[in-house]
Each structure stands twice: as structure tokens, then as C-alpha cells.
Structures
1.
Amino acid sequence: MPLGAGEASMTTDAMTKMKEADQRDYTASELLAVMSGRLLKDGQVVFAGVGIPLLAATLAQRLHGPGLTILFEGGTIGAFVVPGELPPSTNEQRCTRRANMVLSSTDVLLLLQRGYVDIGFMGGAQIDQYGNLNSSFIGDPANPTIRLPGTGGGNDISSLTQMIVAMKHEKRRFVANVDFITSPGFVHGGSSRKDSGLLAGGMYRVVTDLAIMGFDENSKRMKVLALHPGVSVDQVQANTGFELLVDKNVVTTEPPSERELAVLRHLDPEKLYTA
Amino acid sequence: MIEPYLELRRKTAERDRSLREKVMTLEEATKLVEDGDQVGIGGSTLSRTPIAMIWALIRAGKKGLTCMRSITSNEGELLFATGACNHIITSWFSHGIVWGVSRVMRHYTESNKARFDEWSHMAMGMRFRAGGMGVPFLPMRSMLGSDVIKLRPEVREIECPFTGERLVLIPALNPDVALIHVQRCDAYGNAQMDGLQFMDIDLAMAAKRVILTTERVVSNDQIRRRPDHTKIPFFTVDAVVEVPFGCAPHECYGVYEPFFKHHDYYAGLVKKDPIKGISEYLDHYFYGPRNWAEYLSLLGTEEMLDAARRGRSIHDD
């Protein structure tokens, strides 16, 4: 677990908790998949990206959401991914197993715009205090340090529906302002998202290996809502490159159950997404 | 940038749209692509990528193409590395998430040796659809508020004349030529596609020429027995090339899955050294073989059978 950065500011109690946490028998990615999967409700229509989102949505479908409808940008409606046969992207035949329908990718993306999708679910390379995601450029876009692969469907999903983002909690990934807004969250906070013409959707939750965050109703700044077992607010803050708001009633999440981990490992036995 | 409507109509009118046989070889089909052309590429990521046609275009020494695809995988790396293409218009460009961020894409784009224009995935769809509809643009609600739109001087933001809402107008794409691989078609080019269609139907309608590669050429009688399975009509098609395993090492739905071991090998090669690695790969797999069959034998029977077994397994349930 990449928890080291928070140690300096920790109390003895927190240190003890962390040592316990180090002994837990799941990876950060597995924790992410379990925690984000729990946020999906049976009966919802969820548009999932490849990696942890695909896996977490499939986990939710197998555990508590048999009526969860999973959409992939390749054109799949109602995916039912076969355990151990995870696709390399959301565009291969593995995405269509036992699906209800396949559409063109344009038409499945248009379902977002029409309003048929409850939740968009994605991973993220870099996020900021307003939930904007960057998957395009590190550094100046005109002369980037790193050219990243780009938006794919990310921009469309985050522009048109409520979003859950699952990502590793690291200071270099949680920055005050992203270098480039690939997939808009609340843009510059306040009403700026709506003002820019994005009338629907917005960031709902950010799930990391340390905590679950939401966004303040007015300022639209990121806010800690829940901590994973053995994690302190200080530790979350120490791994974040901007000041986090903290909810008055921060709760602690239940650790992943044996059943959750067993089903997850059955789905991804080769740890393709959960290494 | 947007083809004037009557010009587009004139070019369509000039095409021989009669019910005629148009089966030819890969090498013959390369003559339908000119240096500098705009080339629309069918499929998405590792799926139904027209690898055989791209392989043939690279071998024919094509230069300066502008390629457009919904999502671009390592075929984009190969196109950049050979100079066949110096401009890619797409929504996402890397080999695949399981292999990390493409060092080849990074090398060419970060040093401005080649251009990668980023559009949202739906915007790519709107571009091909508008092109296929014969209209100059389509309105859309994403890309607003982002920096993606700031890098796209090609689009316009407007206030809707009906509702006053802000909309983005996405300009049409009518590529000079489209490369599309399908499971089967007849000698006229009536194409039947199984599984995910991606943007291929719009792409075929939008393009000024279409080169169809196919796993099998079937009889026109067979097409007529199931016309509901025909997704691309013959009169949009200019060339039909029968190429078994024409997407290898990518996937063709229901026929073969990606050749995963080969992808791991390729990713390892370009990770070590993007330039030397891809050049070694091109020499061995693209420039070395005498023909497509020899290329397939380099990929290996074992891998091919494994990919085919996995590909066909979707028909087992």
C-alpha cells in the first residue's frame, strides 16, 4: 500500500492502525474495486470504462446488483463479462458476452446525451479540487512533458452524466488544478460547470485506496466523506496536493469482505486490472 | 476543411456505382490510396482493425497520410514510425491500457514529429455521421467546459436558435478513403459485419472511396438470404480484398481474438527502445515477408490457433 507519505504527521494510534492495514491481504486496486463497486445500485444503468470501473461494475453485478445494466463505449448494452476473460479495452468481443444488445459506439455514447445513463464510471490519471480529470497532457499542452493517450469517451461521459471516479490516492495525481481539463468535473467550481453549457451531470464520488470523496454543494470543492479502515484524515490530506474539505460526519468504510474478495479474484484471477 | 456539398456530390456521382465485381489483391488496392490522403480506419482499439490493408499501404511506401479512427492502438504507432502517416485524428491513442502509455506515440507527438489531434469519442462519431449524412456539421453537448475544445479551432460553440442552450457544432469528416475489415462480403462489396460495429457504417457512408477487406468472400445469393445482416451497401465500396486473418494480431469478432502473447512481445520490444524496437518489428513482420501468408506464419500457427479458438468460443454458449 502506498501509504508512506503520511507517516510524518501521524499519531501513534494512527501508526498502529496503519501497521494493521499493512497486514491486510488485498491490494490497493482490489480495495478500489470493492469500495467503488459498493456505490453502484441494483437497477442502475452504468457506463463503465476499462480497468477498475469495468471490474467493479461487474463485481457489483455479481454481488448485489443482478439488475445492474453495464454499458461500454464499444457499443455494448447489458454486458455480463465472463470471469477470467477480461477485455483489454471496452471494444473487444469479450465486452459483448451475454449482452442484451450491441449498438454502434456513436449510438451508445448518445445514450449519455439522451439521459438514459445513471452513472458514468471511470479511472483517472490526474484529478483536481473540482473533480476535473486530465488524461491528455502532463505539463504545458503546447510542449508537454508527457503526452497521455487522451479522452476516449471520458470527456463525453463526464460531460453528460453523474460520475464516479476510481483512482489511486497519490499527491502527484491529486493536484490543485489539472494541467489540462480532459474530462470536466465542476470546472472552476461554483456554477462554472453549468455556465460553460454543461447542463446535466457532474462529479458524484471519487473513490481512492484511502477514502471516498464527494463535492461541496456550493463551492464544488472536493470533500472527504469516508475513510477506509486504518486511514486518518491527516493521511488523506498528506497524499493530496490541495486542501480537502472534510465532512462533519466522516464515517469509516467496512473492510472488503472475504466474499467480495473471493468474487473479485474469480473475475480477475490473473490480476490483469488488480495487480 | 469541410468539403463543399456539390463537390462531394460530384465525386460520388463520378464513382462507378453499378453492381460490379471488384475483388482484387492487397497490392492492387493500395493504388486506391494516394500520398497525403485522408484515411478513415474502421474498427476500434484492437477490434476489426484493418491490419492487412495498413500492412500493405506501409509496404507500398505510402507517405503523409492523415488517419482518422474512433480509438487508435498500435497500428497508429506503426503508421507514425514508417512515415506512412504524420497526422492522426482520434479520441485516444496508445497501444492499450494493459501495456501503459505508448512510448512510440510519445516520441512522435512530444517532439512534434507527427500530429495527434484529440477529439472526444462521441465527437469522432458525430464527424463521421455528419459526413455520412451529407451535412456540414452535427450539434453535440459534450466537450464544453473542457480544454479539449480549446485545442480544436475546427469546432464552433453556438446558442441554440430554438432553446438558447449552448451547443458545440462538430464539423463533418469525409475521408478520401476508408479501410474497413468485415467477416464476410460478396464480390460486389455487400458487407456483413458481426458484433460491434463501432463507427464503420457511418465511415463507409462518409468516405469518398472504401476499401473493404474481408475474412471471406461469399456468394451474392448468401447475402440476399440475410439482407438484414448487410451493414454496408455495395455502391459505397470500391475494392474487395479477401484476407483471412486480416486483422491479426488484432481481433475479428467471432473469428479470432487478439494475439495476446504477440502484443506482449511487441509491447516489450517498444518499451525497451521505442524507435529501435518498432524498427526491428517492422523489418521482421512488415518488410520481411513476401506475402500475407508468410506474415501469418511469422505470427505462428500456435498463436493463430489459440486466437481462433478464443475468437470462436463466443459461439459455444
2.
Amino acid sequence: MSDLVVDLANVRREYQTGDIPTVALADVTLQISRGEFVAIVGPSGSGKSTLMNLIGCLDRPSSGSVRIAGNDISSLDDNELTALRSKAIGFVFQQFQLLPLSSALENVATPLLYQGLRPKEANRRAAAMLSRLGLGDRLDFDRGRLSGGQQQRVAISRALVTNPDLVLADEPTGALDSTSGAAVLEVLKEMNSEGRTIVLITHDLEVAAAANRRIYIRDGLIERDEANAIAGAR
Amino acid sequence: MTLWLTFRLALSRIAAAKVRSGLTMLGIIIGVGAVVALTAVGQGAQQGIDESLASLGANQITVSATTTTGLDENDAAAIAEIEGVLQVSTQVNSSGTASYGSESVTVGISGVSPEYDSLANPTISLGTFLPSSPGLQNTRTIVVSAVGADELGFTVDSIGDQIRLDGVAFTVVGLLDDADGFGSGANVFITQEAARSLFSKSPYLSRISIQAVSQEAVSPVEYRVEQFLRYSKGVTKDEDATYTIFNQAALQDTIQTVTGTLAILITGIAGISLVVGGVGIMNIMLVSVRERTREIGVRRAIGARRSEILTQFLIEAVVLSLLGGLIGLVIGQLASYGFSILGGWDFFIDPTTVFVALGFSALVGIVFGVWPARTASQLQPVEALRFE
């Protein structure tokens, strides 16, 4: 069970819009093991964003159980949920979402600072991570002086620097041209080959092809769950 | 995230939007600056008044005649015997024409008793005051006020020269420094004996100055003097009195009341301007929270707790407000320095003013920063990340 990073059982999530409840996720059961590279694929409105929020510990289910890295998130309060996010999840967003007025180094050091690390140690680790992703000469650049591809690599560094159980990438190539997008996917693949668990959320089948396993979602339900033969997961 | 880092983050954000930060701080800057300057002016004025009063001599009560026969030598002699009285000086006032060289000037003439020098403590800028030994009271010596000296065309060599007072020759022995409240007109001082022999041969007096033994004795002495005068002159109604009693302490009380009112007024202005400044900060912080909703969402996603978001925005508000207070303080002190030169009083930086100005600025930042900061910290990460 410690090998299950994501363990969802009969998860339902509905939103109240006025008097009418909207069902975003109807009944989802899903398990992701350590070391997998999974793509969650679906059109907009399919419920994949809701699924991402649940896996990312940003939201709680209406019913069913969500266990992330062994923790049942329904029983956690806001601070505990934050602590779990900080420890277990690394986020990569579509629009990079680098912090304004902060250098690449400061961006990557920030999650460590929120974990309570000393600035000196946080900066050392952040610099090491950025260097690994080929940005060692861009430490002092803010987001205005970085290309889209570089910004996304900074964002990936920020997601990886805490050594999380799971990297959650929401349309990481959505704002990039195809060359930069392909490069970002290569980085994610490489990270996966080093043993990191990666969950990619996308509507793009080509992007999803980079993953070893694809979970198709539609109308709040898992439609199909397919793995590459070679990867052999599940 | 340490407070120091949060503080630096707030500073860099304020620096990144200089115009906006400046405009936001303007209310606090003006408020604190105005209050610091006004307080300094108030203190300077107070200092000037205190010095003027002190130069009149300590613990004094003055009885002035309101009619030509209102007070006489007997009154002075009796008052000198009243319990609590240290010494008494008397003077007769009149006016006349003083001539020196080709200049002729109308002057106020005070004939003062020998005790005047020690009691009223006049400031001499050149020469000496009138002789105080009893044997020299009939000499024709004269002391001239600064204005008088100026109008008569005195030079530094005029000490020892003679001037004519209504045709009678007097030897100039000293010049007064008028700056400390000894009347602004052209006045001359001669001995009372000389005045009696020349101008007013009656035993009546214009003024009796009384010095009490201590500050505490001033009020009781004033009371006894008043009782004595009422009794000896048979005064039953206030309007029948032929004299007025003036107590320096009473004047000081009045001035203190006025100063107190002024202080309340300044505090009121300060309060209003700080509230206005605080509302400005709150307004801009609310805008800032809205503009940075996505950033808040990202920070929450990557591990910032609610309390850390709250602290971040609160510190930003406090830094804005404190910086405004600091700038206001500097501007206010510069203005006070300018006023001190104009008003001729001492410039000093009052630690209380510094402390209160900065303390209240910080308080304004906290009070008006709490709501925006709370709003920021209460944002749901999911909603904040989705915010366009």
C-alpha cells in the first residue's frame, strides 16, 4: 500500500450552483503507483480539473475516499492539507505561474522556505535543481527575461525541488510552441525515468502519448484506462 | 517563510510599484508630517512663552493702579510685611520727551525702586542697571530700552553720555535687551527718587511688584494682598477697585489651557488624517489582493499556509504605512527646523514625537491591513488558481 501514491475509491464531487447540484465527478476509482507516468485525458468539462484538484490536495471529495501518499484527505484540516501538498505534491501549471518580482532562484526556493528551511539551504538546493534542468546560468533572471520554455523548466524545478511523491502537471505544454512543448515533455519523461511519479493532465492526445499510461475521462467517469505494453503497469 | 523574508518581499513589491506606493502612502505622509510640524510649532511657542515669563522674574504678583491715586507708598510698605512675601518693588510711570544729540523721542518713563533690579531681573545688553545702593538713589542716571536706544540714535559709545529727559540731564549707564519681554516701546528707567523729584511729587504708585517666597506661596500671597487691599481701601464691589492684581502663575495656567486645547486639536487632525490614510492603504491592499489572486493560489498550492498569506499581506500594509510615517516624520522635522529658524526657538527632535508617529503609523497599517489580509488568506486555492 505504501507504493500507492494516489488511491481514489468511489470518489464523487459535486458543486452547488444555486439550487442545482452539478456533478463534476460521478464515481471514480483510481490507483497510481510510485514511479508511474500517467496522463489524465479528457475534454474540457469532463471532470479532469476536478480530479486534478483532488489529487493535488486542493479540494476534498463530496463522498468516497481520496488517499494521497497514504493520507486520507477528508480527515485533514486546511493546515494539514497544506502540509501534505507541501511535502507530497509538486505543481506544474499551464501558464507557468512563476511568482512575480522573483528571480528563478527565488521561485524555486519558495516551496522550501514554506517548509521552513533556512534561506541559505533553500537557495543551495534551488540552485542545484535549476542547474540540473540546464538553467544554472539563469538563476537571477525574473520571469520577464525568460522564454516560455525556460519559465516552464523553472516551474518544473520548483515542483521537483521538494522531492515530492507526485508531480502534478496541468497542461504543461499548453502555453508553449511545439518545440518547447516537446522539450518540456522530454524533461518530464527523464524525471520519470529517474523514478519520479508524474501525473499529466491534458486534453491533447499527442501530449498524453508521452505518458506510459492514459486514463480517459468523460462526464465525470473513467471511460478507459490504458497502459503501454512496455511499461506494464497494472 | 521567515518574517525577515516576508518583510523583504513587501519592500521589493513596494519598490516595484513606486508611484502607486507613493500615492498610497500620501495620506499617512501628509498626516504624520503635518502633526509633527504642528507639534513642534506648539512646543516652540510654549518654549518662547515660558522664557518670556521666566524673564519677568520668578513667583511674581503685580498690582497695578487703575486710577492715578489707586496705590500709594503705604500700601507697598504694608504688603512687604504680608506673610509669604519675599520682596516688593515699586514704580511710578509717566511719559516725556527724551533728547540725545539732534534726536527727540517720546518715551515711557519708569521710576523704579532699588529692589526692581533683583526682583524683575532685567537683562542688560550694555553697561549696568540703575544703582541699587540707598545713597545713590538721587543720582540722575538712566537706562534705555533697545527700541529707545535705536530711536535716539545711540552707538556703542553712548554709555556715559547725557540725554535730556524733559530738559533734565541724565547720564546713560546701561542699555536693556528688549528681546525678553521688557516692553517693545521706547522706554527709559530712572530711579524712583529721581522720578519723584522731577515728574510725580505725589506719594502715589503706578505699580507694586511682589515676589513670593516660593511658587506654592504665590496663590496664598495673592489672596492676602487682595484681602488687605480690599480692607484698607474699603472695596466692597469688584468694579470699585482702584487696582488690578496680576498673577503670573494665573497667566501660565491660561496659556497651558490654550496649549492643551491646541494639543487636542492637533490630536484630532492627526486622528482624522491617519484614518483617511489608513482607508487609502486598505483600499489599495484590497485591489492588490484581487490583482494577485492567482499568485495567492500558486503560493497556497506550493505550500503556503493561510497564516503565511495573512502575514504577507499584513506586513505589506504595515510596511507601506510605516514607510509613509517615516517619510512624514522626516518632512515634518524638516518643516519644524524651518519654523524654528523663523520663530527663533530651539530646534530639537523630540523622541516622543518620533516614537508616537512611527507607532501610530504601524498601528494604522495593522488596523487597516487586517481586512485585506484576511480576505487574501481566506481565498480557496482552487478558486484562486482558476481566477482570471
